Amino acid sequence: MGYSYPKIFAQLTLTTVLCWIGGSYYYHDSSQEFQIYSTSENENFSLKHLLSNYKTSPLQLEELDKLYNITRVPNYREKLSEIGYLDNFYYYNQKVVDNTIQKRMETIDKVCQTIDTRHYGSVHLYQMNELGVTWCPVFKAGSTTWKNYFLKKFVNIRLTNDLSLLKNRILAVKSGLVDGKQVYRDESVTNMRFTVVRHPLSRIISHVNNAAKDSEMVAMKNSWIYEAIVHNRKGSLINSTIELNTYKRELDHYFLWLTLKKVYSKPKISDKNPFLHPPYPQLDDLINYIRLGSYNGHWAPAWKWCNVCTNKLNYMIKLEEEPLELWYLLDKLGMWSERGLFHDVKANSSPKVQNLTKVCPTLDNDQIEWLNRYYEYDLK
């Protein structure tokens, strides 16, 4: 919703391309004049140089193309001293950004007129009344940066950075509708509601890649990984209950070893055990698990997770369009003075290319068609 992207895949080969570029899907849309992304590793990205050539008019994507090889990963957090150049860049382009965001929100309103939202009652809004904002965290779309910012702002003593530490700020009690907008008891009526979104396929690729880490394997075993691996791969076994149980025991022992490496030696793994070759979840494991009906913020459609149709967010920016849309958002939320804190956070949500090749097998037509249906409104 609000994404001017084509369907997730037009061809099977595009899956491989998405994996190769690192799981941050970028569709070149010539109407998005303000997009700026990182250069190749061999070039030094400098907004100072860029602005020295274009001081009086908005920068056009065509002009940027002449100077840089534009790629998909935002790379504006090089050093704090670049903040002044980002400020200037935003100053020259804020009308373009404003028009783009307005059109996006208008598109969302139009799409919402076609959706029956009566059954989407879950609330994932967090009020920060002291700042005059309300936030919906869309996981794998830069939510960790915002979560850590709010934790630092409002939680004095903490042993973890878990989002549950902000649970007292969840808007749990509804107070009816005003002009079609859901109102909540504990939210200031002047709060500005916002979220940050990301292309849905990039989100699930990022989640699977992160899940391949040993620590995450343990942490997410019971929430989805174990069941997803067994469900998706057991079809390769001959109808043998003994064989299935043997391989599941090996999987159990492997998870035990991941949990207690200092105590246990690595267990033996049968060459033909599909659950441990590879010994981590893959993209199709997750997709087929989601198809069972599992609902989780790491892969739920953003429009449904934030219930954007009834919560009527004021702003929805795209992770792919940072830094410009982030600067715009901080400006509009009255948080301009805080931009240095966001600027200095390392962009680490996009997985490494070499790791993605392990978790991104080519999807089949059935999975592709299902993804397009599941994320239909996110992609409109």
Question: How does this model look, in words?
Answer:
- With 380 residues, the protein is α/β, with parallel strands linked by helices.
- Helix content is 42%, strand content 7%.
- It has helices at residues 13-20, 47-53, 61-67, 83-112, 143-154, 200-211, 214-219, 221-233, 241-259, 283-290, 302-305, 308-311, 324-332, 339-343, 353-359, 365-374; strands at residues 126-128, 133-136, 174-178, 181-184, 192-197, 315-318.
- The strands form 2 sheets. Strands 1-2-5-6 form a 4-stranded mixed sheet. It has a two-stranded antiparallel ribbon with strand order 3-4.
- The longest helix is centred in the first third of the chain and has 30 residues, at 83-112.
- The radius of gyration is 22 Å and the shape is globular.
- Mean pLDDT is 77; it is low at 4-81 and 346-359.
SSE topology sketch:
Elements: H1 13-20, H2 47-53, H3 61-67, H4 83-112, E1 126-128, E2 133-136, H5 143-154, E3 174-178, E4 181-184, E5 192-197, H6 200-211, H7 214-219, H8 221-233, H9 241-259, H10 283-290, H11 302-305, H12 308-311, E6 315-318, H13 324-332, H14 339-343, H15 353-359, H16 365-374
Parallel strand pairs: 2-5, 5-6
Antiparallel strand pairs: 1-2, 3-4
Helix pairs in contact: 4-13, 8-10
Q: State the distance separating the first and last CA atoms.
A: 5 Å
Cα-atom radius of gyration: 22 Å
- The low-pLDDT segments are 4-81, 346-359
Mean pLDDT over the residues: 77
Query: What's the shape?
Result: globular
Q: Provide the β-strand percentage band.
A: 5-15%
Count of individual beta strands: 6
Major sheet: size, sense and barrel closure? 4 strands, mixed
Structural class per helix/strand content? alpha/beta
Order of neighbouring strands in the sheet with most strands: 1-2-5-6
Q: Bin the helical content.
A: 40-55%
Number of H/I helices: 16
H and E string:
HHHHEEHEEEHHHHHHHEHHHH
